[in-house]
Amino acid sequence: MNTENTESNLLVNAFNEEEKKGINELKALLPEIIKDSGVPENYTLWGISLDKDSSDDRLDVILRKFLKARNLDVNLAKEMLTNSLKWRIEFKTDSILSETFPESIFAKVGFIHKHDKYNRPVTYNLYGGLDNNEVFGDLDRFLRWRVQLMEKGIQHLDFVKVDQIAQVHDYNMVSMMSYDKTAKTASKSVIQIIQENYPEFLAVKYFINVPWWGDYIFKFISMFLSEETKSKFIVASQSNVKECMTAAIDEGNLPVAYGGQSIVPGFEVEEVNV
């Protein structure tokens, strides 16, 4: 590993010996992973070369993600990374940032806005007041938009000091009827894609403006999540959104809608209960 920068807050300095051993073993398998997945020999993942002889610490950070997602089992991590690279080819993920989606539909579904107190980018996902057929009816389009949002978030990561994203899921104005079969199918599909291809990218997930019946949503979602993922959930009712959010995000970076001072075009304060 490259040890020129020895600052204590570098991600690589937090690796334990078992992780280092697993990273070295998985790195040695990269030529086989590249061959089996079908990606080009000079392929880069999130801008980082998958060269087994690379001294780039960022590669080690990425490999650790796949290892941790498989409890440091090198063979399972190898399988996961291979399948993920295959998916990127099939889904055309590497060109997805250049795609465009109707702003009139998706601007009100989610966006990335600034960062939290740990310099992690924050993704806001909005569920209230949506036309489910309009948003989720074309499932392939919705999934491509959602993957693009994830890839946009990753553009804000340096894999040196920051390698995770904070998410906010806002259920303001969501009724029990809103979570219909179309929404459930889309939710299940997104969870599967994220879990299989973006391991250990979630730092924390805030569920805010949760209605009294929100327990039904969590029970459904939880069926498809690992215990480790669920441990990253923080739930806030409509009465303590600002308190919850300002504990994690400076007011200057928090949208006005949640009690902060940052203005998000098209996202007005009256849309959210604070």
Protein architecture, described:
By secondary structure, the chain is α/β, with parallel strands linked by helices. 41% of the residues lie in helices and 12% in strands. It has two domains: 11-91, Helicase, Ruva Protein, domain 3; 103-271, CRAL-TRIO lipid binding domain (Phosphatidylinositol Transfer Protein Sec14p, 3-Layer(aba) Sandwich), CATH 3.40.525. Residues 1-6 and 269-274 have low confidence and may be disordered.
In the CATH hierarchy, the third-tier topology of the largest domain is known as Phosphatidylinositol Transfer Protein Sec14p
Distance between the termini: 47 Å
- Strand segment tally: 7
CATH class call of the largest domain: Alpha Beta
CATH H-level superfamily title of the largest domain: CRAL-TRIO lipid binding domain
Portion in beta strands = 5-15%
Backbone structural class: alpha/beta
Instruction: List the strand order in the largest sheet.
Output: 3-4-5-6-7
Mean pLDDT: 89
CATH architecture of the largest domain: 3-Layer(aba) Sandwich
What would you call the shape? globular
Number of domains: 2
Short description:
With 274 residues, this protein is an alpha/beta fold. The protein has eleven helices and seven strands.
Tag the structure with descriptive keywords.
Phosphatidylinositol Transfer Protein Sec14p, 11 helices, 7 strands, Helicase, Ruva Protein, domain 3, 5-stranded mixed beta sheet, 274 residues, 2 domains, disordered C terminus, alpha/beta
Write the layout of secondary structure elements.
Blueprint: H1 17-28, H2 30-37, E1 44-45, E2 48-49, H3 57-69, H4 74-91, H5 103-106, E3 110-115, E4 121-126, H6 132-136, H7 139-154, E5 165-170, H8 181-197, E6 202-208, H9 214-222, H10 227-230, E7 233-235, H11 241-246
Parallel strand pairs: 4-5, 5-6, 6-7
Antiparallel strand pairs: 1-2, 3-4
